[in-house]
Amino acid sequence: MSRFRPLFRASAVALTVLLGAASFDAPSSASDATANALHLKSSERWVTPLAAPIQVVNQFRQPSSDYSAGHRGVDYRVQLGQSILSPTDASIYFQGRVVNRQVITLRNSQGLLLEFEPACSKLSTGADVTAGQAFAVVCEPLAEYVQHCSKLRCLHFSVRREQRYISPLALIGGLNPSRLLPYRKAASN
């Protein structure tokens, strides 16, 4: 271990310098940091897709590959007929049945696709919606639909960019920020 200690110290110094330089124009929030990382407008307004109180039942779990297990969205506990709010300014890109699910997809100006299921709307495809506007309701799922949340009724909400899923909580808030922990020298015996 001792022969690697100079390398660790040099890495720590370099990281400190980089973080210090980055702090001059660091984003003001975790949401801004995510927006910058995704090359999104940080001025774009994002809100939760449901009115308070909100209960997340299943978190986003990033798959290790395109074909791996994971959970490519978040699930919220909901009630039948509950209003779904647009998380950002967007337009209705798709609505209809996909296999055994009623799905609505919004597309925002940055090209993100926001998908909700089971959801139904009286608005037409192409209709514009603004952040916070009710655009759909949680509808009765089809008989063969298997809920994401075994015994609860839930709304699945996912976000895609260029065929890759990202955590919706990274955009609307709800993720804990990453933190660097101080280096602690291991006690020698």
What does it look like?
It is a single chain. This protein has helices at about 5-20, 30-35, 170; strands at about 55-60, 75, 85, 90-100, 100-110, 115, 120, 130, 135-140, 155-160, 165. The longest helix has 18 residues, at about 5-20. Residues about 5-35 have low confidence and may be disordered. By secondary structure, it is an alpha+beta fold. The protein is built from three helices and eleven strands; from the N terminus they run ααβββββββββββα. It is globular.
Short description:
The protein is α+β, with helices and mostly antiparallel strands and 189 residues long. The protein has three helices and eleven strands; from the N terminus they run ααβββββββββββα.
List keywords for this structure.
alpha+beta; 8-stranded antiparallel beta sheet; single chain; globular; 189 residues; 3-stranded antiparallel beta sheet
Q: What order do the helices and strands come in, and which of them pair?
A:
Blueprint: H1 5-22, H2 30-37, E1 56-58, E2 74-77, E3 83-85, E4 90-98, E5 101-108, E6 113-117, E7 119-120, E8 128-129, E9 134-138, E10 154-161, E11 164-166, H3 169-172
Antiparallel strand pairs: 1-2, 2-10, 3-9, 4-5, 4-8, 5-6, 6-10, 7-9, 10-11
